[in-house]
Amino acid sequence: MSTASSVRPYRVTGRNLGLDLARVTEAAAIASARWTGRGQKNAADGAAVQAMRTAFDTVAIDGTVTIGEGEMDEAPMLYIGEKVGCGGDEMDIAVDPLEGTNLCARSMPNAITVVALAERGKFLHAPDIYMQKLAVGPGLPDDLIDINASIEVNLRELARAKKCAVSDLTLCALERERHEELVAKTLEAGARVRLLSDGDVAGVVATCMPESGVDLYAGSGGAPEGVLAAAAIRCLHGQMQGQLLFDDAAQAERARQMSAGRDPTRTLALTDMADGPVFFCATGVTSGDMLKGVEWLRNDYIRTHSVMMRSESGTIRYMDTYHHVHPRS
Questions:
Q1: How far apart are CA 290 and CA 106, in angstroms?
Q2: What span, in angstroms and rounded, lies between the C-alpha atoms of 61 and 203?
Q3: What are phi and psi of 110, to 5 degrees?
Q4: Contact in structure between 172 and 214 (CB atoms under 8 Å)
Q5: HSE-CB for 97 with a 13 A CA cutoff
């Protein structure tokens, strides 16, 4: 039995920006949720972007979007390099105003709004390209996974670390034609496979949620989502590696320009993607494994469900919020 003297004291750290970020993701979630099930993913995404950008005007930071909606000439707001916040500490911002636009449009689970925050220069700067990803949860030996090894080797090492059979493991990946070989080899090794139609931030985070049943995430998806997932994995003490995937030399050169002289073709460790103290915040749009979706209640209230994570303290906070609004038209 623990004694009072053996219990670790509660750690009080500096200012927590989690609540400020929650207001940003809540605003985006409420705005996009009005389009749930309407089959219009672009309208849902546009509503989320507009609401998130407006909400950032209330956050006391000097923020620069490093992972956003694309290059300046591709996105009207929340573009890479845009300044956000109303003044304060210099911070890097990574956003996905609506992860799972198709999920929202089709009223399917796991659509979320996401923001991550780090000190200036601590997030990976990369163009909007694909990234190969490999992730596992906490409590495992350091450097357990290897993105350059086969999936069979990674499954075998993970099973050994978890003291279980490969057949007890579940791999999560996006359901894409490019992942057919990954899925086939995973099944041949004896593990289970869970496929997602969209939303690989939630898929990566699921490796750190015991109730999700996901042991390993693998496959390629957006590099912006990779950085956001890395921020969450930092807070949850999991492991993750990445590799940027280039279609041509121009993309590789653009990545070099954004990487401050570092080789963008290298294998990315977790801290290459998200370093230093980081915050991660997400709000559910449609209910899923991680968060409940937006609910319209009686008496002009909207209910949201959010999670706020902080790497410095390891704190994870879930928040149910009731927003008083005017009746829906």
A1: 18
A2: 29
A3: 80, 15
A4: yes
A5: 30
- Residue ranges of the domains in the chain? 18-120+279-324, 130-274
Taking CA atoms, 185 is separated from 31, 146, 195, 243, in Å, by: 41, 16, 14, 20
280 vs 114: CA distance, rounded Å: 8
Decide: 204 and 190 in contact? Cβ < 8 Å: no
The answer to whether residues 285 and 113 touch, using CB atoms and an 8 Å cutoff, is: yes
pLDDT tens per residue, range 35-53? 999 999 999 999 999 999 9
Q: At CA 51, angle to CA 279 and CA 48, rounded to 5? A: 80
Q: How many residues does the chain have?
A: 329
- Distance separating alpha carbons of residues 99 and 48, to the nearest angstrom: 10
| CA-wise closest residue to 92 among 127, 122, 59 | 122
Confidence of residue 154 (pLDDT cuts 50, 70, 90): very high
Domain 18-120+279-324 CATH assignment equals 1.10.3720.10? no
Among 206-215, 278-287, 310-319, name the most confident range. Answer: 278-287
Which CATH number is 130-274 given? 3.40.190.90
In a 3-state reduction of DSSP, which class is residue 121? coil
> Each residue of 116-151: pLDDT tens digit?
999 999 998 877 889 999 999 999 999 999 999 999
The DSSP bridge partners found for residue 241 are 134
